[in-house]
Amino acid sequence: MSLDTPETSTPASARPFQVDLRGVVDLLSRHIYSSPQVYLRELLQNGRDAVTARQKLPDAPAGLLRISPVTDADPVFRFTDNGVGLTATQAAELLSTVGRSSKRDEVLNLRREDFLGQFGVGLLSCFMVSDEIVVRSRSAHGEAPIEWRGHSNGTFSVRELSEAEAAGLPVGTEISLRPRPDDATLLSPARVRELTERFGRYLPVDVQLEQGDRSWESVTIPAPFLEPVAAGSAHEEAQLALGTELLGARPLASIEIVVPGTETRGIAYVLPYAPPPSARQASRVYLGRMLLDERVEDLLPDWAFFVRCVINTDGLSPTASRESFVNNEALEYTRTEIGNALRRWIMLQATTAPHVLSGLVSVHQLALKSMAVHDDELAALMLPWLKIETSAGDTTIGEHLERFGELRYTDTVDEFRQVAAIASPESPVVNGGYVYDAALLRQIPALTGQSVTRIEVSDELDSLEAPPLHERQLTAAVEARAEEALTTVQTRVSIRSFQPADLPALYVADQAVLRRIERTKAADIAPGLWSQVISTNDRLLTGKNSGEGERDVRARLCLNWSSPLVRRLAELDDPLVFRRSIELLYAQAMLAGHRPLTTTDRALMTGALTDLVQLSIGLGDQNPTD
Ligand SMILES: Nc1ncnc2c1ncn2[C@@H]1O[C@H](COP(=O)(O)OP(=O)(O)OP(=O)(O)O)[C@@H](O)[C@H]1O
Predict the structure, then answer these.
(1) How many whole angstroms separate alpha carbon 456 and alpha carbon 295?
(2) From CA 601, how far away is CA 604, in angstroms rounded?
(3) pTM for the whole thing?
(4) Is 81 marked within a binding site?
(5) Signal peptide span per the entry (predicted)?
(6) Ligand 1 mean position to 304 CA, how many Å?
(7) Which comes out higher in pLDDT, residue 551 or 243?
(8) Which of 70, 302, 307, 579 is the most exposed place for a label (fewest CB within 10 A)?
(9) Ligand 1 center to 32 CA (angstroms)
(10) Do 277 and 305 form a contact (C-beta atoms < 8 A)?
């Protein structure tokens, strides 16, 4: 069927949509606004906008918003402003038409930046707490004062007030609400104070609350996050107090954020504790100094999880719920600029306040590493402060490079654990296995010109020499005895010589090393032509192939033939002492390599320890454990 109107039909007259106000209020309260408490935010916002509109006229007084909560003596809530006011025509048109707003640019149909409202639905939020809204207003443009009454059943009336009726009504607007019994607490003095302070504490107009004794108390204070502060000033204290309230602890530092492009400014507080890396810090955000939300999620870049911000913006667009921003180019730009401000601050600390940076690094290592990986400039400044684990203990990249001039690292934690025990103290190995570490270490040559080498476990264990030929018979017998001792944990045993000599055993799980051990074993058995064939073949091997399957590449215990303890064990005749000692060496090598112990491993270790203790105190013959 065509959507065009058939020529023969009678032209239909255009009629306006009917709006079911109850449905709209239900939509607002259940699906747009998070809670009925936003009635106060919407009133504050309308009052603030009316004051702004009046300030554009000559001789406007300073803006003033006054709120009288519901009390036992007076069950009506009143909100007054000394703003621009409304004429009868404006009231009929603007207050009574859902979606009509005076605050949009007529041509662009966009929010005008000096106003907070734009959607033309805010006043309806009062129907979430009251069945009737009464507006009495006197326009700054002259004309008779008016009274507009709107009902939640969708009807309204508007009338001009006589001067007698409007006696004492100044230019501006007064909104009265009589709360539904269930909602009365939302309009009570305590809740009204709490909500006014939360939403409107930093508004650029004076907001006053009526007290029990009919006096007025101002709740507005200067926003401590909008001005640069002098060190040691009361203003700085107020700024830190706000950060302490926000984080629950005194911030490590405060970083000024200024994004002129979207009229955004505020403070990023550095958390004094490390949050989980996945936890994106939500920002407390004000729009035109009115609270938008305590937890706006998308204003910071992902990596900025070490700060929490308090921000005010005049240039970003709120969604209709006024609890988050429209995800547009301006938001994207602001997010990037906030990221740049954080980066600039870190760089400044690196050059002017290294102690601040080192404090920051000790708490927020991971966030900083994640930033440095994608940012050469930042990496150059941050690298010296970043902590690393080395076979000679924990240190920083800067200290390590200063001491050793070069850096050798493993790609994984597992590799590190296997080589850490045998790395020489003159050339320690760095653990590049923690998140971002290897990627950062690889940046060093380009940034500082210093040498960085990735090492392989197999290269480090290259010095695993087979015992001399004349001792092979003895070592083969020890290997067999030791392997028998370890049958429950199915671990092979090889004897090799390596440094340091005081390390009796090494647990080897690296496949390349295991292949090499197997190779030397085959070469030992088949000297001459066969050993050449095998070594040529090994050079060609880069991964798994059919020949490899025949080799035994199970993890194994490497006993150190250079260790006096192992040599002493080789001479030991007592089978129980030998077995228990081998079991203990196995457990010790597992623990030194940070390998998790299985139940069998633990049972083996406990049994060995118990027996050795019993044997050493002379109980061995009476009660060995098995
Ligand atoms: N206190 C007031 N003084 C003067 N005019 C007002 C006042 N409150 C509301 N108005 C007029 O009524 C219109 C509709 O108000 P409403 O709160 O429903 O929407 P809005 O403020 O324009 O937009 P939003 O839905 O985004 O809050 C306003 O655009 C304004 O012209």
Answers:
(1) 47
(2) 5
(3) 0.71
(4) yes
(5) none
(6) 37
(7) 243
(8) 302
(9) 17
(10) yes
* pLDDT class of 554 with cuts at 50, 70, 90: low
Question: Which of 32, 94, 134, 138 to mutate for ligand 1's pocket (most ligand atoms within 8 Å of CB)?
Answer: 94
Residue 549 domain-assigned (yes or no): no
Ligand 1 centroid – CA 103 distance (Å): 8
State what percent of residues in the chain have pLDDT above 90: 49
pLDDT at 515: 72
How is 445-472 classified by DSSP, letter by letter?
HHHH--EEEE--HHHHGGG-BPPPGGGH
Residue at which a domain ends, from 171, 193, 218 = 218
Quick one: pLDDT band at residue 8, thresholds 50, 70, 90?
Answer: low
pLDDT tens column, 333-386: 999 999 999 989 988 988 898 888 888 888 888 878 887 888 887 788 778 888
Say if ligand 1 is within 6 A of residue 94 CB.
Answer: yes
Is the pLDDT confidence value at 551 over 70?
no
Residues 335 and 263 in one domain: yes
Residues 6+ apart with CB under 8 A from 10: none
**Ligand 1 contact via 593 beta carbon (within 6 Å):** no
Question: Which ligand 1 atom minimizes the distance to the CA of 47?
Answer: 1
State the DSSP code for 93: I
Return the CATH number at 606: 1.20.120.790
118 lines ligand 1 (CB under 6 A): yes
Position 32 in a domain = yes
Which residue type is seen at 17? F
What is the whole-number distance in angstroms between the Cα of residue 301 and the centre of ligand 1? 34
For ligand 1, what atom is nearest to the CA of residue 175?
1
**Do residue 120 and residue 200 come from a single domain?**
yes
- Residue 371 included in any domain: yes
Do 418 and 391 lie in one domain? The reply is yes
CATH number at residue 245: 3.30.230.80
CATH of the domain at 415: 3.40.50.11260
Let me know whether 367 and 240 are in one domain. no
Q: Which domain covers residue 469, as residue numbers?
A: 465-527+554-617
| φ, ψ (nearest 5 deg) of residue 412 | -130, 160
Kindly state if the Cβ of 83 falls inside 6 Å of ligand 1: yes
Determine whether the shortest distance from the Cβ of 47 to ligand 1 is under 6 A. Answer: yes
Q: How many domains does the chain have?
A: 4
Instruction: Flag whether 46 is marked binding.
Output: yes
Cα separation, 22 vs 109, whole angstroms: 27
Query: What are 418-442's pLDDT values in tens digits?
Result: 888 888 888 899 999 988 899 999 9
* Largest pairwise CA distance in the chain: 123
Pocket perturbation via mutation, ligand 1, pick of 49, 96, 287 by most ligand atoms within 8 A of CB: 49
95 lines ligand 1 (CB under 6 A): yes
113 and 165 fall within a common domain: yes
Q: Residue 548 — pLDDT band, cuts 50, 70, 90? A: very low
pLDDT at 533: 44
Please answer whether residues 316 and 331 qualify as being in contact, where contact means their C-beta atoms are separated by less than 8 angstroms.
Answer: yes
Q: Is the CB of 86 under 6 A from ligand 1?
A: yes
Same domain, 29 and 167: yes
Does ipTM exceed 0.95? yes
Residues 278 and 380 in one domain: no
- Per the CB < 8 A criterion, the answer to whether 132 and 149 are in contact is yes
| Residue 12 falls inside a structural domain | no
261-287 residue pLDDT tens? 999 999 999 999 888 756 667 899 999
Q: Which of 218, 249, 266 is the last residue in one of the domains?
A: 218
| Distance (Å, whole) CA 447 – CA 397 | 13
Pair of tokens at residue 100 = 């009509």
